[in-house]
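# step 3/5: fold
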Amino acid sequence: MSKRKGWGGHGRPCHYVIQRNELRTIDAIVSRPFQLQNQLTPRHRLSPQHQHSLNRVTTVKHPSLPTLLSFNGGYVDTLGFLSLSGLFTAHVTGNFVTLGATMAHGLDGAWSKLLALPMFCAIVFLSRLACLMLQGRNRSPIRPMLVVKLMLLTAVTAMAFIYGPFNGDNSTITLVVALAMVSAMAIQNGLHKAHLAKAPPSTLMTGTTTQIMLDLADILANPKSDEIAAARARVKKMGAAVITFAVGCGAGAAGFMLAPVVAFSLPAILAFIALFASSATAES
């Protein structure tokens, strides 16, 4: 028998008595998990191969955010160009060329090309202010900005199903669709430039292609240089971005030819998937 001191009601000390068999029962309950762990035999334990298989099953691999953005950049730019009378929704400076062609040949879609760059600049500016505000509250701005982009592309999808297919004319609905797509891609461009700087650009491939050619020339000229390993890694990463962008362009063209209305739903689907994508290796 053991005598223990404790605390009773109203904070007053009291004594209580525990029999020896009760002590043994309490000790057994406390130590039971540790005894079970020590009593496991090799026959009951997982082999390294089974443990590796279990880890592969229980680990969920998320898609890469830069990969999704690169595909989406090529897809949206091509779909917008074909559906909206030559409007570049992502590579907006190209609209200066198409605007000149529109004016020279008397084509439709001049207003969307004229307003694309001011709208793009305004959205990048406002989204940057929103990102800075979120960072001031110790919050990552990546997911909130992706949600705004998803909302814009969902609105484009709804308008496409209601009013599509579009003919690239100067109607109000076509202008709204064009500027909504430009706004969504402006968010993607600004977010990528400011917060995913470790990944290659997802819309402008001219600089990426130039860097690939420079790195390939360096590798060929001096393959034993200490910087070659970094150049090869850069070529691999940027080459994957260019290929993904090109595949997106092909998919956008195929969507326009096969289903010009339904094709507008894929960017919204990709934007939704991007909310769960991994950005750890690309965040700056």
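# step 4/5: annotate
Residues 228-258 form the longest helix (31 residues).
# step 5/5: archive (pending)
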